[in-house]
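Page 37, continued from 36.
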């Protein structure tokens, strides 16, 4: 009986040979990689994109998959079974809920800090803090359940309660009466102001550059005594696919290189 190789055409024999090489490469681990999934607050977008590239360069074969959103939305996804290796929150409230749910592998560590500023459309009615309370001003804030939304309302309260600033005790209520848009994360607040859809909003200092890429804005500082000191915690999750690799990523964020990357995007030290 003729051999099979004799019966096949030269082209078929070449195709079978190439297919065999592909199967062999896969069997030997060719093309394999490890994926690390990191869930992080929206305000960390640029910094963590930079950190992910650095980490991948230092760990050949590792791919960092990033998912950004409001910390409260990411926390809710984790509670409902979403899989991830690392969680980085913009506040301790959301992180504490993740810890309480038994979803963490170790205690969270603070890795960065942030402060707030008011941003406004240059030709709007808002040129100073007192203008946030002027009738007719359109104000955007993140939702109260979002870390930056809670921080924003606390800053407004601090501004109203500090007699030395001189805005008056009714300032917070008057400013909130101008609230026309509550957003799911800080990035959408910055974009709405930059696009002129509202007159002003409160965002993290680190999101000023994001807003400036979308349009011209005016930055109005909030006095230090009324501002907030937002602390960012990070943790390895209980069901991480590769716990050791996840711990290495957290250590990298806390390293000198990681802290330098965060500082480049305007974050303060924890």
């Amino acid at each position: 009986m003729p051999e099979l190789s004799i019966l096949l055409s030269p082209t078929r024999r070449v195709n079978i040979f190439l297919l065999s090489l592909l199967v062999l490469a896969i069997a030997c681990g060719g093309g394999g990689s490890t994926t690390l999934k990191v869930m992080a607050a929206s305000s960390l977008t640029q910094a963590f994109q930079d950190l992910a590239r650095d980490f991948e360069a230092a760990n050949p074969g590792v791919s960092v998959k990033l998912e950004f959103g409001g910390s409260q939305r990411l926390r809710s996804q984790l509670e409902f079974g979403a899989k991830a290796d690392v969680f980085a929150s913009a506040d301790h409230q959301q992180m504490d809920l993740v810890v309480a749910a038994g979803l963490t592998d170790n205690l969270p560590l603070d890795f960065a800090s942030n402060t707030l500023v008011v941003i406004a459309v240059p030709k709007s009615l808002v040129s100073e803090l007192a203008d946030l309370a002027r009738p007719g001003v359109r104000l955007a804030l993140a939702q109260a359940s979002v870390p930056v939304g809670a921080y924003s309302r606390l800053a407004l309260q601090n501004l109203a309660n500090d007699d030395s600033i001189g805005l008056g005790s009714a300032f917070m209520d008057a400013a909130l009466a101008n609230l026309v848009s509550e957003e799911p994360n800080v990035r959408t607040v910055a974009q709405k102001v930059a696009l002129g859809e509202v007159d002003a909003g409160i965002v993290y200092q680190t999101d000023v550059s994001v807003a400036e890429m979308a349009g011209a804005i005016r930055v109005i500082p909030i006095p230090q005594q009324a501002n907030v000191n937002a602390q960012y915690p990070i943790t390895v999750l209980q069901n991480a696919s590769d716990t050791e690799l996840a711990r290495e990523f957290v250590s990298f964020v806390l390293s000198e290189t990681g802290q330098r990357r965060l500082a480049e995007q305007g974050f303060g030290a924890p």
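The domain at 34-113+231-264 is CATH 3.40.190.10 (D-Maltodextrin-Binding Protein; domain 2). Flag for discussion at group meeting. Residues 77 and 83 are 9 Å apart (CA to CA).
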